[in-house]
Specification:
The complex is a heterodimer of chains A (about 400) and B (about 250). Chain A contains 13 helices and 12 strands. Chain A has about 400 residues and is of the alpha+beta class. In chain A, strand 8 and strand 9 (about 185-190) form a beta hairpin. In chain A, helix 1 packs across helix 11, helix 2 (about 20-55) runs antiparallel to helix 9 and helix 2 (about 20-55) crosses helix 11. Chain B has a single domain (about 35-60, about 70-245), classed as P-loop containing nucleotide triphosphate hydrolases (Rossmann fold, 3-Layer(aba) Sandwich), CATH 3.40.50. Chain B is about 35% helix and about 25% strand. In chain B, strands 6-7-8-3-9-10 form a 6-stranded mixed β-sheet. A 4-stranded antiparallel β-sheet of chain B has the order 2-1-4-5, with helices on one face. In chain B, strand 9 (about 215-220) and strand 10 form a beta hairpin. In chain B, helix 3 crosses helix 4 (about 120-135), helix 3 (about 105-115) packs parallel to helix 5 and helix 6 (about 180-195) packs antiparallel against helix 8 (about 235-240). The longest helix of chain B is centred in the C-terminal third of the chain and has 18 residues, at about 180-195. The chains are: A alpha+beta (about 400), B alpha/beta (about 250). The interface of A and B includes residues 8, 315, 318, 320 and 405 of A. Chain A: It is found in: Cell membrane.
């Protein structure tokens, strides 16, 4: 018996019952489309959360001084008054670290920023040019300062949106203007793009950024640095980067093996893993619901195939009387089931992708159609076809031709 | 003498119905020669249907032998029986048993789909030829519900002819048809028998139909009570011509 003939027989049988074949397919179509669309929504929201976190500088590592010593009667010193981090630490990290792509010192001070008659209390952050890379913070206007500005302690600055709104009038271009911070004049050379609030509700745009040398010498008059910001190669290597930085700083600070660290290294990995696991759970939940509908679709196939076997008993009897063997009947019904489920699967995949696109288009939810979800749901529905099609097909193949022919 | 188409010797068939054993056939013997047109007669309960099932290789004898074209049917498996039916027997049923919503051509092609030796080109040619043989060459694309009862039965006969069987086995093939159409079908079968030498075994309970055959075997209570050559074979063609014109509406 040629397989081609069996496929032809099955196709003709399906053609004779187009509506029923379509209704059976509908279960599979909806199941597959639901799996793909749901997983796409889940994956999309996970991706967008990760993107958001990355835009905050998710691979950012913060190093702060930490008290490991006591003075006088055993009181520990406040971190901000510690002077354990120096520019030598920066140089050591730059030279030795392999998991760090950028590093910047940071010193900061609060004060009043003034432009003409308008003034606003804000923070000035003294950093190196790499800081903007570490924070993943593009400029909206103007240019960033360079290493030259740092070397000469130039009085240039970049200002955040909140500062712009408070000390500049509407329509006024801040770039090129001279503002004063605590009476020291700074030239505005760039405006930072808007970043909004951080995870703790602080306004990240309420800031003035200047070369760290300028802030050290002209505002704070200190030789040490207060913080170090660095960025790991990627999120997953932030733990390795942390360990590496710790080793480098311990060596740089000449700490003995028994000494505690005199600094703290912090990453945002915990925050990311919390968000990621939440959206992971969402994806699994959605996929589970959709998977159930796929199984229901499969049961639909089995149901229809059973009804079909009963309804077509006489046809089966006839086929047997003109020479169809049991195995021919088995394959006919099995191929019918597989054709239904595979055709349904293909339509379902197309529908699922379309639905994901529409969700993005009309609800502007992010979606991400993954190849694995397409492969998986397609495989599941092919297996469903075989699995749920087999028993009805076997029932058909075992009919006695005499009884089947007489069946009314 | 040429090879016998059917050779049955002391054939018995028993059925178990709970604790009782029903003996449907109690030792039947007869032969069918090539080119014969045999009717098997009998009232209900005579074992006629059981005889038909065994002749059609749908059922196997409990005892005795049945040789179909020299093949011992009793020794074959279920699958071998199916292949034997496909190659050697053409069935014509009372209720036509055409596949609904399927063209006459595809209905006739059906037996050949189960024969892998036939290519799809041959299949088409042979089906068209079989339909032409039953004078339906102009209706090959018609669906069963677009055909009259007589035409449907002719499609069924074409389906029985298409695999070039050694025997056409008809089961009350005129039972659902009016007198005129019955005669038409019988005329067609007579033609196939007389002109093309087809061997036909026709199971019926109507003596009227038996008159068209060359030989009649009568069964009663599972035994052959009469097996006679028909001295005066009636011509269905002539009977058709003699029918009053008024009946032709």
């Amino acid at each position: 018996m040629k397989l081609l003939n069996l496929i032809r027989i099955a196709l003709r049988a399906l053609q004779r019952n187009k509506l029923r074949a379509f209704l059976t397919m509908l279960g599979i179509i909806i199941g597959v489309a639901a799996v793909i669309a749901m997983v796409a929504i889940g994956q999309g929201s996970k991706q967008s959360i990760q993107d958001q976190l990355s835009s905050m500088g998710s691979n950012m590592i913060t190093i702060r001084p930490n008290s490991n010593q006591t003075v006088g009667g055993g009181a520990r010193l406040d971190a901000s008054s510690l002077q354990s981090l120096t520019l030598d630490d920066i140089k050591a990290i730059q030279k030795q670290a392999t998991y760090i792509t950028a590093v910047s010192p940071a010193v900061q001070s609060r004060g009043q920023v003034i432009n003409g008659a308008l003034n606003w209390p804000t923070t000035i952050q003294g950093v190196s040019p790499q800081y903007l890379t570490i924070r993943n913070w593009p400029l909206k206007d103007g240019i960033a300062f360079t290493q030259d500005h740092v070397n000469t302690a130039d009085k240039v600055c970049l200002i955040g949106q909140t500062v712009v709104e408070n000390i500049f009038g509407a329509g006024e271009d801040p770039v090129g203007k001279i503002i004063r911070f605590n009476k020291i004049p700074f030239k505005v050379i760039g405006v930072l793009s808007e970043k909004g609030e951080n995870a703790f509700g602080q306004d990240q745009d309420d800031i003035v950024i200047a070369p760290y040398t300028t802030v050290q010498k002209r505002i704070l008059a200190i030789p040490y640095i207060q913080n170090i910001y660095a960025s790991a190669v990627n999120e997953s290597s932030s733990a390795l980067a942390t360990a590496e930085v710790t080793d480098i700083l311990r060596a740089s600070h000449k700490l003995k093996a028994t000494d505690d660290d005199d600094f703290l290294v912090r990453t945002q990995a915990e925050l990311i893993s919390t968000f990621s696991s939440t959206s992971e759970l969402l994806t699994v939940l959605l996929a589970a619901i959709a998977g159930i509908s796929l199984v229901v679709g499969g049961i639909g196939i089995m149901n229809i195939m059973y009804v079909s076997v009963t309804e077509r008993t006489k046809e089966i009897g006839l086929r047997m009387s003109i020479g169809a063997r049991g195995v021919d009947i088995l394959f006919q019904f099995l191929i019918e089931a597989i054709l239904i489920s595979i055709t349904g699967g293909i339509i379902g995949v197309v529908l699922g992708i379309t639905a994901s696109r529409l969700v993005t288009l009309f609800l502007s939810w992010p979606t991400l159609v993954s190849r694995s979800s397409i492969m998986l749901s397609f495989m599941v529905c092919a297996i469903t076809g075989v699995f749920f099609g087999y028993y009805p097909a076997q029932k058909a193949s075992r009919l006695d031709p005499i009884d089947a022919l007489r069946y009314e | 003498m040429a090879n016998k188409i059917v050779s049955i010797r002391d054939l018995k068939r028993e059925f178990r119905m709970g604790v009782e054993t029903v003996r449907a056939l109690k030792g039947v013997s007869f032969d069918v020669e090539p080119g014969e047109f045999v009717t098997i007669m009998g009232s209900s309960g005579s074992g006629k249907t059981t005889m038909l099932n065994i002749l059609g290789c749908l059922d196997k004898p409990s005892e005795g032998t049945y040789l179909l074209d020299g093949v011992d049917v009793g020794k074959l498996s279920r699958n071998e029986l199916a292949v034997l039916r496909n190659h050697k027997i053409g069935f014509v049923f009372q209720s036509y048993n055409l596949l609904a919503r399927t063209s006459a051509l595809e209905n006739v092609e059906l037996p050949l789909l189960y024969n892998s030796a036939v290519s799809s080109k041959q299949r088409h040619e042979r089906a068209v030829k079989a339909l032409q043989a039953v004078k339906l060459g102009d209706r090959i694309d018609h669906l069963p519900n677009q055909l009259s009862g007589g035409q449907q039965q002719r499609v069924a006969i074409a389906r029985a002819l298409v695999n070039e069987p050694v025997m056409i086995l008809a089961d009350e093939a005129t039972g659902n048809l009016d007198t005129r159409t019955s005669y038409e079908i019988m005329a067609l079968l007579q033609e196939l028998n007389q002109q093309q030498g087809k061997t036909i075994v026709f199971v019926t309970h109507e003596p009227d139909i038996a008159a068209f055959s060359s030989r009649t075997i009568t069964l009663r209570d599972g035994e052959v009570i009469k097996d006679s050559q028909n001295q005066q074979v009636r011509s269905a063609r002539e009977m058709l011509a003699s029918l009053p014109v008024a009946a032709d509406y």
